[in-house]
Each structure stands twice: as structure tokens, then as C-alpha cells.
């Protein structure tokens, strides 16, 4: 036990958090989300530009939270957090993407417009 720490606060996992990091993370997140709100309320850009700007601001807010709140970095003590995030992000994207695709195709299959060709071929209760 010659290499053990007698002080539990000496471990890098415990020392990574601090009040200043949490305050900076909170302020940066609120500022970025406030900027996204202002962009949304102004209505002065095209749809594609709007989506890119708001998406970029949201990505920056997530990045600031990951670095400042969760302490994600590539140091030897914290690499497991970064690896778990890297492995979780594709699953999240696949889940959201499949959900959007399912609802989009569900809308096409169930919300048939009355004057469409698909509506003419579907039987009704009166037929």
C-alpha cells in the first residue's frame, strides 16, 4: 500500500469538479440558449440558415456542458467518460433518426388526403 492515497480528495476523479466550472458552465449554457432564443424570435433569416445557426448554438451549449459540467477530456483518469459518450452518441442519433423516420412514414400511410389517388383505392365503411 505504498502507492495509496491517504487523502480521498487527492484522487483526480474527485478534484475535477469545482464551483467555478459549474458557474461557468451554467452561464455559458444560458448565454448560448438565450442567443438561440433571440435568433428564433427575430425571424430574419431563411429556414436553412436558421436551422444551421440554432443547431450550431445547441451543439456549442452541449459541448460546454460536456467539458465544464461533466469534465470530459482525454486525461488518463477521465478517458472512460469520453469513451462512453463517444459510444452513446451514435445510439442517440440512430434512435432519434429512426423515430423521425417512423413518424414521417406513419403520417404518409395514415393521413391520406381525401382527393388523392390513395384515397380513391381505400374502401370506406359505406362500400
Summarize the structure.
This protein is 69% helix and 0% strand. With 127 residues, the chain is mostly helical.
What number is the mean pLDDT? 80
Radius of gyration: 24 Å
Pick out the low-confidence regions: none
Instruction: Give me the count of strands.
Output: 0
H-E string? HHHHH
Q: What proportion of the residues form beta strands (DSSP E)?
A: under 5%
Total helical elements: 5
N-end to C-end Cα span: 85 Å
Major sheet = none
**What's the number of structural domains?**
2
Q: What is the structural class?
A: mainly alpha
Shape, per Cα inertia axes: elongated
Proportion of helical residues: 55-70%
Give a description of the structure.
This protein has 5 helices and no strands. With 127 residues, the protein is mainly alpha-helical. It folds into 2 domains: 17-71; 74-110. It starts with 11 loop residues before the first helix and ends in a 6-residue tail after the last helix. The relative contact order is 0.08.
Keywords:
single chain, 127 residues, mainly alpha, 2 domains
Architecture blueprint of SSEs:
Layout: H1 12-15, H2 19-42, H3 47-68, H4 79-110, H5 117-121
Amino acid at each position: 500500500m505504498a502507492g495509496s492515497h491517504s487523502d480521498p480528495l487527492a484522487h483526480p476523479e474527485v478534484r475535477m469538479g469545482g464551483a467555478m466550472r459549474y458557474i461557468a458552465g451554467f452561464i455559458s449554457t444560458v448565454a448560448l440558449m438565450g442567443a438561440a432564443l433571440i435568433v428564433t424570435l427575430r425571424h430574419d433569416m431563411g429556414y436553412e440558415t436558421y436551422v444551421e445557426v440554432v443547431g450550431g448554438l445547441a451543439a456549442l451549449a452541449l459541448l460546454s456542458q460536456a467539458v465544464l459540467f461533466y469534465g470530459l477530456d482525454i486525461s488518463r483518469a477521465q478517458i472512460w467518460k469520453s469513451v462512453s459518450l463517444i459510444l452513446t452518441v451514435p445510439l442517440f442519433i440512430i434512435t432519434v433518426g429512426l423515430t423521425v423516420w417512423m413518424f414521417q412514414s406513419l403520417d404518409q400511410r395514415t393521413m391520406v388526403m381525401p382527393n388523392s389517388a390513395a384515397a380513391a383505392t381505400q374502401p370506406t365503411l359505406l362500400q
